[in-house]
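Reading is simple: each integer encodes one residue's backbone shape. An example follows:

___
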Amino acid sequence: EATGWVTARGNVVVRHGDTELRADSVQLNTVSGEVIAEGHVLLVRLGQGATSGERLAYNYKTGEGLTSAIDLRTGLYRVRAEESRRRADGTIELKGVSVTTCTNQPGRWHYHVRGRTATLRPDDYIAVQGATPVFMGLPFFYLPWWRKELDRHYGWRFVPGYESDWGAFL
């Protein structure tokens, strides 16, 4: 079309550089780079994991995007969020986030960290604000801020200590 908009429906696959988008329906503007994908959306970036959800608004020229209820896999980690926004520099801002390495289905995770908001650099780190570790469905601690490097997985490590002003700590 003269406006640049193209619409496709039914098992749509769009490739651009190292990015592949799959969805039931895709509207693509070849002029501005805007993409609106709906239904079983899967966005895969080579070497950066995969994002899935039901709706995605994304600009393949700037790299910016917005989606709700995402499920992202990056390395050994699985990150789920109620809402996400990808900035042009590749940083992803998340709201209502959960992070785990558990391989069970969501809702059956043995352990995870949940938080109000988070900043994610795929294959680099995730920083969660208002973090609560959860083990077997039971929240057991509160951390105002938690950061995890995503390029290595050590599991949970607790280090005991004692400080004269504070007493024993873990």
Summary: The CA atoms of residues 131 and 143 lie 5 Å apart. The chain is about 0% helix and 65% strand.
